[in-house]
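Changelog-adjacent note: as of this version, every example in the card shows the full chain rather than a window. The one below runs 217 residues end to end.
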Amino acid sequence: MSSGIMDSDVTILDVLRKQGMLTVAELSGLLSVTGTAVRQRLTRLLAEGYIDRKAVRPERGRPFHQYSLTTKGRRRSGQNFADLAIVLWDEIRLIEDVEVQQGLMQRISRRLADMYTDRVQGQDMSQRLAALTELFADRRLPIHVDHSGELPVLSIEACPYPEIAEHDRSVCSMEKMLFSEVLGESVKLAECRLDGACSCTFQVTSTEIADTQLPIV
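Full-length structure tokens:
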């Protein structure tokens, strides 16, 4: 890679984005590699400015370091063209006519859904949810689908637009529109990271699938 980091380094960025601050030992366990290998990767990422290191001095035991993503690291791990997204979103928010603004957001959601339609196929909701999970995993945006309740709940473990969402929660509404379009069912935002939740969760609200037994994805 021209940035000076390797594919294995990007894996660490993805883990830190999902898990938050982690130690060398925790990364070693999650990645199933040695502590030495983890330290080598962290050294490269620190040098490139993708991660920060924080010293922790507990009351008992030896001091240790925790590692987390910088803004540069969040952008690199998601590969989501953050700069362009921020500029475009700012332009949308400058539209004074609320009806025009909401209409534009709806059209954007539909265009995104059209891009994903070929990969999110299935005769029932179970198949479409599995396809959606696979699609987002390929884009390094992991989704967990919980079928333990009456209706399935999607947990977005890594925000696709972290810089935007931190300042404007209306992007969550557009994401809700996108899921509704892709899945072909009504979806509501149940929990949001901006309100202190661990992840943003979206619940499929259609009662048509409530009686269908769905497997865990």
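Structural remarks: The radius of gyration is 19 Å.
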